[in-house]
Amino acid sequence: METLVEGAVAEALRGGGGEAIRLYVAACAERMAPLFVGLRVGVPGREADLDLYVDSVRDLWYADRPLADAAERVRLLERFPELQPNEEGITDDADTYAFFAALCLRYALLAHGSGSADDAVCCGHAALTAMGMLDQNVAGASFLAEEQRLQSLSLSGDASGLWDVSVTAGREGFRAVVGHLPR
Known about the structure:
Layout: H1 7-16, H2 18-40, H3 47-60, H4 70-77, H5 93-114, H6 117-137, H7 143-153, H8 162-180
Helix pairs in contact: 1-6, 2-3, 2-5, 2-6, 2-8, 3-5, 4-5, 5-6, 6-7, 7-8
């Protein structure tokens, strides 16, 4: 599979061990969270999905140990409409970004539970794909380059400030998406 994740990041994930992988996916999921939560809040019948999403992103930050119920959370997440096959495909911008946010969380939970570097790379790839699409839709944007920088930063071994920059980047991406959506 060809991936947008930089070779150095993928190599660091493969050699970094469980805690490095868990921190990396937590940061990726945090940056993508506003795209799911912000685009799905207020949608009737999605309250439990939002709770699962928010609780899972929060719990991913406990990077010192794998989530004991990661597989169950993945099973529940895979029931989300965003991850269900659809003959028509995804045609709506909001649905597209929510799909990538759900996909990112799916791989983050898989990687967090198993320590799989391949799942972590898939998590990063989902985030990078969404940010690349955003760059194509917003003139002069550099969300892809910023996501690549933050993915590298998350593997630097210094976790201080990573949550803050991830929250800020996620909010900026969400604002750009909302500004691009038809009214």
